[in-house]
Amino acid sequence: xxxxxxxxDKHAFVMVGLPARGKSYIARKLARYLRWLGHDTRVFNVGxxxxxxxxxxxxxxxxxxxNPEGAAARLKxxxxxxxxxxGWFERGLAIGIYDATNSTRERRAFLRSRLEAKGIEVxxxxxxxGDPAVVDRNVRETKLxxxxxxxxPPERAVDDFLQRIAHYERAYETVTDDExxxxxxxxxxxxxxxxxxxxxxPARAVFFIMNLQTRxxxxxxxxxxxxxxxxxxxxxxxxxLSPRGVAYARSLxxxxxxxxxxxxxxxxxxxxxxxxxxxxxxxLPESATSWRALDEIDAGVCDGxxxxxxxxxxxxxxAARAEDKLGYRYPRGExxxxxxxxxxxxxxxxxxxxxxxxxxxxxxxxxxxxxxxMDSPPAECPFLPMPLHTVIELVPNAYGCTERRYxxxx
Length: 410
Ligand code: F6P
What we know:
Bound molecules: 6-O-phosphono-beta-D-fructofuranose
Number of helices: 15
């Protein structure tokens, strides 16, 4: 293939599209996913720079292409954000996401030449949506909560924002092949066009974007009920539930009954292939899908031992794990970093699934999934609190999740 080039180690995803087309949603989700996979990633949102540098509440005319002062101010803001991103790359950032409309060829050519001059590969990510109902929903769900419209009555804010979009529409030019590498997401993912996508990170990003749902849904996480091994303080294994664990499984079914009433559709129940999670899910009316990828971290030669036995038999390993719990790999087993890679297909499935999801899992696995869903820094992942007999409910909001924990009596 003539366009193949040496693999660059710095990538800039440059968002393109009219306002309220889901650019920030994709930018944030992509950043969270890449960070979770271990790539140092940051979003540079030009709207935030604008609010900081020229003030939040600008009337729609500020965004008109016929307003020279507005255009000059917006260019200045875009440059400041770009220089910040370049500065971050110079200090070691691997991936930057430049979130703005970037809706003209001229602006994109400027960004591309500045970035490529610094050895940074540019991938344009354009979102196109022609359905006014979807645009209206995006405006109401996200823009009305923006500082741009704080204190302004909703209908006036919607009107102003639609006028802002109309200004952008007059100047908007879609990305064309001569502009380099791009991916276009059309009509909420109904159609995807990818051009000259090359290399592991851009290809992975495109695959992730392809699977994104715009519909938001609740995710519940719980560990299995107390197992025989939990009682004995042993790691790993495939033991059954203890009597207390069975009582938890029953309480869980009653708890989910109340949740089911408010759920907007059927709930997908997922377990691992180990007995303790399958047994915990067995009291729910839904038939569960058992994923091997959801099995607990493989403790290798330490499987079935207590932590005291591990310290005694493998003192060097015990100390090494305490030193670097994320990177430490049990002999013939896994590390948390390995676990994150193993769970990647589950994350894709979480994003793809259009129903609420209930996951009955294990301590380490749930820490890794929670770290993704809540965007926790990778170093914190192995220490996230994940107590037994607790349901974590994660309800999506504009750009993240609201968390509630329910400790069930059993
Ligand atoms: O102790 C229960 C358990 O699920 C073990 O099977 C697993 O090895 C452990 O938790 C993971 O937690 P940590 O990484 O803190 O040892």
